[in-house]
Design brief:
This protein is an alpha+beta fold. 33% of the residues lie in helices and 30% in strands. The longest helix has 15 residues. The two termini are 28 Å apart.
């Protein structure tokens, strides 16, 4: 779960929050809520959706590339949240010239009730591959649907 939290916050913010948690609770007996409040405070974010998902529910995470279709000089990439667990989607687009473009669908899309999001990506330079969560930060239940082409 901490690896997933690092994926949400980024390494720098995660490390600051974790260090602050250790400082605040050194030689004490913290409860889970103390960890939650420290990370919320240090990150400046309301992470209640994260804590609920991974500590209080049994929801599964299943982010998927549903379809990739041409749309003029672009590709429409449909991302689905097939599980109930909300997490941001980190998308990596590898171009034929070797460049890598990083895109993010914020968690707010899923928290607002959506379960599909369409991203329009320029086709040039050519697209070699598209992958969700290339760093494997999130505990997705089905990684076979996270890459294009399949």
């Amino acid at each position: 779960v901490l690896v997933a939290l690092r994926g949400v916050l980024g390494k720098e913010t995660f490390n600051k929050a974790y260090t602050e948690y250790a400082r605040r609770w050194l030689y004490k007996h913290p409860m889970p809520s103390d960890l939650f409040h420290t990370f919320d405070d240090v990150s400046g974010q309301d992470l209640s959706w994260f804590w609920r998902t991974w500590f209080y529910e049994t929801w599964k995470l299943d982010q998927a590339i549903d379809t990739v279709t041409p749309a003029g000089d672009s590709l429409d990439v449909v991302i689905e949240n097939r599980g109930k667990a909300p997490m941001p989607v980190h998308l990596s687009v590898t171009r034929s010239d070797g460049q890598v473009q990083e895109l993010t669908v914020p968690v707010s899309a899923w928290l607002g009730g959506e379960n599909r999001r369409t991203l329009r990506i320029a086709r040039e330079p050519g697209i070699k591959s598209i992958e969700i969560d290339p760093t494997r930060d999130f505990p997705d239940v089905d990684r076979s649907n996270q890459a294009w082409p399949r």
